[in-house]
Design goal:
The protein is an alpha+beta fold and 177 residues long. It has helices spanning 3-23, 43-50, 56-59, 144-173, and strands at residues 30-39, 63-68, 79-86, 89-101, 105-112, 115-127, 130-140. Helices cover 36% and strands 39% of the residues.
Length: 177
Amino acid sequence: MSRTSKLIIGSALALVALAAVLLAPIDFGATRIVSEADIARPPSDVYAYVTTPGHWPEWHPSSLGVHGAVDHSLLVGETVEEDFSVAGRTGRVTWRVTDREPDRYWRIAGTIGGREAGTVSYTLTARAEGTHFMRVFEYGAPNLLFALLNRWTIRQQIDEESRTAVRQLKQRLEGSI
C-alpha cells in the first residue's frame, strides 16, 4: 500500500473516530432556561391562557402552530402537537401534561420522534398587583456535539426566544398588543 493510501485511510479512520466521540449517546446534563414576568392579571386568567395550547402561537415566537386538544387548559395526561422553530431548528414536538395545580403550576414533557425533548413548566404566584409568572424550559444534551453547540450558540438563542415569549405574554395579557 502506498504512503498516500495509508494517509487517506488513516485520515478517514480519524474522522470516523472523531464523529463517534462527538455523536456518542452520552448524557451531558440538562440546561435550564428561566424567564419571568410580573403580569397585571389574576393567576386564574394567566393560567387559563398559558395552559391552552391554541394561544401559544399568539405569544411564543417559537410556536408555529398547534394540533389536537388546543381549545382548553390541558389536564394531566392530555397531549398536543406543536410545530416549532427553536434556535433555527424546526420540527414537531408532542407535549404531554405531567403535572397540574390549577392557577399555580403546570408542567409538560416533550418528545420528538420518540426521543425526550425537554420539559416546560409554569409557576404562578399571586401578588397584590397580579401574578408573578415563571417559565422554565429544561432540555438535555444527548451527545458531546450538542453540548458544545449548546454552550456556544443554542442556549443563548433559546434564552432570547424565551425572554421574548414571556415579554410578549405580559404585553398580550395586559392588552399592550
